[in-house]
Amino acid sequence: MRIEALGLCPPSELYVSIGYECVELRHACAYRELYSMVNPGVFRPIRGLFHFNSFELKECLTVRILQEDGAALTLSRLVEEEARDLSGEAFAHFMDHLYERITTFPDSNEVSENLGALRAIYELIDATISENVSKVAKFSNYIRAAFETKRDPEILVLASKFLGHLARSGGAITADEVEHQVKVALDWLRGERIEYRCFAAVLILKKMAENASTVFNVHVPEFVDAILVALRDPTLVVQGKVVEALRACLRVIEKRETRWYYRMFEATQDGLGRNAPVHSIHGSLLAVGELLRMSRNTREFMMSRYREVAEIVLRYLEHRDRLVRLSITSLLPRISHFPYDQFVTNYLTICMNHILHVLKIPVERASRFIALGEMAGALDGELINYLPTISSHLRDAIASRRGRPSLEVLACVGNIAKSMGPTMEPHVRGLLDSMFSGLSLTLVAALEQITESIPPLVPTIQNRLLELSGSALVQLALRTLAHFNFKGYDLLEFARESVIVYLEDENGATRKDAMLCCCKLVANSFSAISSTQFSPSRINCASGKRRHRVVEEVYF
């Protein structure tokens, strides 16, 4: 078969078709293979991006790449193919051209173009090609430029992810790049506060700790000093990333010297001083939480300071700032997992009274339900005296919500049921009706915990789940019919035969969705008639009869 018979042009021509429809990389690759199959006697031209213009590459790496990672992956495969098929000089020329195209994107102010270039770099890091040293050097320079010049958080987060990937790939030049990036990040944290640079710095340090721990470990003393200052950053988004970096560092040093735990704990005390600002208190509490969270060495260190930590929690339990109170709430489950006897004897009553009081405040109850559920796992049967009050709060929280109950409440029910077992049966049985207001993964997880811990409830839950699953699917289908664009289809007869039956469904939500769906389909039929240009009288007559039948069955 000749190529002309299919109307296909050679791939080299396809790549320069800037005036025509842009072809995605994977489509171009498939096209190229088809070209070779149907035209085997023709010498396959160089397939590289010598002829792949900037406009097409930009389209492949930005708009589409954000939706489908396959485009970047195909770019990696394409490069590997070129490495196998081209001579050394030709491949070097090919890669120079590709790098040139990719590195034009950082000059753009379009976020999508920067993200696209980063995606391409991520895939090309793993591409198996001979000129790996040159590749790493070029990509390192690009990522450096991204951190130094870009301010968009999405770009910085993605750049840090790819920096971690580059560090993980190893090699001498990679170690040098890790060393450089760590030093730059520490300088940014120690220098004048510039928000986007602080943000970038903690992202870099986190990824270096996770992916290049040997090199990072040399800088732990400097990191500890710098990160403790960063913990008091007034910007919440920066504080959040600082905590992640601290967590990564603790994983690096957890089996090494514990002197850094002392240094960190002392710094948290400094941040909790009498006149400390809110962001300093918040950051210090986050650091305490990480020290409590980490593995055995850290926990053993914190055991000797348990009373100090508990006193910190009690001191800020009723703090005027909501952010501080939320931080304290997140610490409650962690201190409850420490010496069981000490917590139950000295702190259980005051902590539970606080939680039960705050559960009455709608804007803060979600975090308290999370804490309560997590504490239940550590306290075994110690919550038995609080079950009536807890169940009352759970019932009020579920019933007061319009539509579905909050996910935090559902998770709390499951965790307490798992902890208390059959003791919780009468309380859970009274909550089931409210819990089944909508299907969610959190509900399913809670029900699994309940059925494992309270076997007598298994048949009831099984039946309710089957009923709910059927209703949920029907409601989804009805909403789809009502809202999706079915232009060109007359669905009136379908509505009469398949939708109206749900107007008498036992489930009230299903009946409502069926009614709205019927009304929408009838309204759409009027709209279709007004826009038609062919035989209006005949169409009006036929559609009018169908509408009449639908309306009759809806209302009569």
Automatic annotation (TrEMBL):
Coiled-coil intervals: none
Keywords recorded for this protein, A-Z: Kinase, Transferase
UniProt xrefs under PANTHER family: ATAXIA TELANGIECTASIA MUTATED ATM -RELATED, SERINE_THREONINE-PROTEIN KINASE MTOR
Any one annotated GO CC term: cytoplasm
InterPro entries per record: ARM-like, ARM-type_fold, DDR_Repair_Kinase
GO molecular function, one term: protein serine/threonine kinase activity
GO biological process, one term: negative regulation of macroautophagy
Name listed for the protein in its UniProt record: Serine/threonine-protein kinase TOR
